[in-house]
Amino acid sequence: MPVGMRPDDRTNDVLENGFIDDGIIQIDVKEASCCMYDDAIWRDIELQRSGACPVCRTNAGPVALREGEYSGRQCACGVIYIDPLPDHLADATVDHHHRVYYSAPARARVGWVKAFTRRGRLLEIGCGDGEFTAAAIRAGFTVEAVEPSDERATRVERTLGITVERALIEDSRLPEGRYDTTFHVDLLSHFPDPVAALGAIAAKVAPGGTVCFEVGLFSNLSPFWQRLVGRPNMPTHMWFFDAPAIERLLDAAGLKLIAMRRYPVGLSTALSTVLGSRRVAAAPDSHAPLAQGWAAAPYYRLHMFLRYGIGRWLPMGGPQTAFVAARHKTDSA
Ligand SMILES: [Zn+2]
């Protein structure tokens, strides 16, 4: 029992409400605050911050995932949220993906954006090494980007001749209402507050413009798929979504969904789980890529073919990746 905790009704209440996990007493901060702040002794307790659904801001969901000290709780809206919140956020300048992950689907991703906004100024959030950036420039967009890694930002500025702001989108000082469209890939699971981040992105877009992105859909999976998907990689991933959850998330950020194209990624996921199971058993904390050296590029090309090539023709079900397009709710069309 932590220093300062008293063995009274509240402790029993906490026990009965199931906030005990692996010997750590977690207190629902909202619930506790209403009766704690009048008692000085309680102020010394270091509360572990319980997670909550970023859309509904509630935190009573049942546990759907477990990984180490973290649980993923299922919200009724479709989001799975991490609980407790990690002490430290993941370093946004670190990216474990192979370059093929960005280069192989780059044209398809630009094609998705172009289906809704044909030309103009595009803001890319997290340009990395510029694979999407180059494809967007070739497609006729004027691209500007935000990227927290100074090294990558410098490389993209040098090779593609565009301006890159060294920042997270939440801190970006680029002018609001400046862009015709925006794009990012697989960032929603990492933003500390995905509603605030999407709101910051939406603010950069002019009336009539579009917010486009790609996001993995890994919530509400059957036990079969959950086993095949393997570890959820918490706390690097803090939120997991399904298609209805994305629509609610957009709504909370002042946006409305205009289109979504989903690709089942079960084949690709199963391949990495089967190949990776021995490595994960030997080194559970390793994030090293499964294929390295000469084998890496063909291995990840195969993955991309399974996801976007074959995946397009497979029946829906299991984990998916989705291309999403949205507009301001205030736009009439
Ligand atoms: Zn929710």
From TrEMBL:
<dbReference type="Pfam" id="PF13489">
    <property type="entry name" value="Methyltransf_23"/>
</dbReference>
<dbReference type="InterPro" id="IPR029063">
    <property type="entry name" value="SAM-dependent_MTases_sf"/>
</dbReference>
<protein>
    <recommendedName>
        <fullName>Methyltransferase type 11</fullName>
    </recommendedName>
</protein>
